[in-house]
Design goal:
Strands 6-5-4-2-8-1-9-10-11-12 form a ten-stranded antiparallel beta sheet. 23% of the residues lie in helices and 25% in strands. It is α+β, with helices and mostly antiparallel strands. The protein has one domain: Roll (Hypothetical protein YwqG fold), CATH 2.30.320. The protein is built from seven helices and twelve strands. The relative contact order is 0.19. The chain is globular and about 60 Å long.
Length: 288
């Protein structure tokens, strides 16, 4: 592991193009290393192609515990946690069981636009109607649902850096604050060759088409509005470092007509450690 013990040596070495470009642009090498040591995080990139292990799937049958309520949002994907590559994320995820992700990728408002369900190993499940979230059977959503992706998801361990200069870290502000925008721009220019965009990502940093602000901070703001409107149970700490990105779904990679849509599932660190996945909050960026 590198000095901050968050990513493997292989992932650490993969950042060489970022280092080289930073030094080429006149940033002292020691500043680059301080930034990377503070900011780098591992993540699991999930795609429908490649040669990584199959760790879940987009769509498929909706299998839930018999006593679980019907979901309030469409079913997106299921992930087998035991199949994720070792050290793929720095999140305190359960070692096994399944995570089911739900989202409505079209709006953002003062309520969660999705949810996460954890199904422990050995839990008896029954197949549910995937349209149970839409009890009135409204036809307006058929076009959107027809665009939801289907198929196996393969995982690759990837490296992640901030896409925005004001990201919050548990250890405090990023080093070299005067360089933050430069480092973010460098990552934006090199990440395609280092860690290509994936339709579904577990852990790491949030990204979206508009990246002026941290999407996790935006999600916390929406959660606060939801709590104040009586649509979300608090507390909602305003310190963004108390939250993490659980998953990003770049729906724009999969859904024609929703080219800018991104779903961010966030959760408080202490809720994640306690496996309170019912406390995950989903926000959506969509610019039709």
């Amino acid at each position: 592991m590198n000095p901050v013990t968050r990513v493997t040596p292989e992932l650490w070495d993969r950042l060489t193009p970022f280092r080289d470009k930073a030094v080429e642009d006149g940033i002292p090498a020691e500043e680059v290393e301080r930034w990377l040591a503070a900011a780098v995080r591992p993540c699991a990139a999930l795609t429908r192609d490649g040669d990584g292990p199959v760790v879940g799937r987009f769509g498929g049958p909706l299998l839930l515990p018999a006593d679980a309520p019907d979901p309030e949002h469409p079913f997106v994907a299921s992930i087998d946690l035991a199949a994720l590559p070792a050290d793929a994320t720095d999140l305190p995820l359960p070692p096994d069981g399944r995570l089911l992700f739900f989202a409505f990728p079209e709006t953002d408002s003062a309520e969660s636009q999705g949810s996460v369900v954890y199904v422990p190993v050995g839990t008896a499940v029954v197949e549910r109607d995937r349209n149970a979230w839409n009890p009135l059977d409204e036809d307006d959503y058929e076009e959107m649902l027809d665009e939801f992706p289907e198929g196996p998801l393969r995982a690759t361990a990837e490296v992640s850096l901030p896409y925005h200069p004001d990201v919050a870290l548990p250890g405090g502000p990023l080093p070299e604050p005067a360089r933050s925008e430069e480092f973010v721009a460098l990552w934006d220019g090199t990440c395609a060759d280092i860690a290509p965009d994936a339709p579904l990502q577990i852990g790491g940093y949030a990204n979206e088409e508009a990246i002026d602000g941290d999407p996790v901070a935006t999600a916390v703001w929406w959660a606060t509005q939801a709590m104040e409107a009586g649509r979300w149970e608090g507390p909602v700490p305003q310190d963004v470092s108390k939250w993490v990105l659980l998953a990003d779904w770049q729906a724009r990679n999969d859904m024609e007509g929703w080219e800018s849509s991104t779903v961010h599932w966030v959760i408080q660190r202490e809720d994640l450690a306690a496996r309170r996945f019912d406390r995950a909050f989903a926000s959506v960026f969509w610019n039709p």
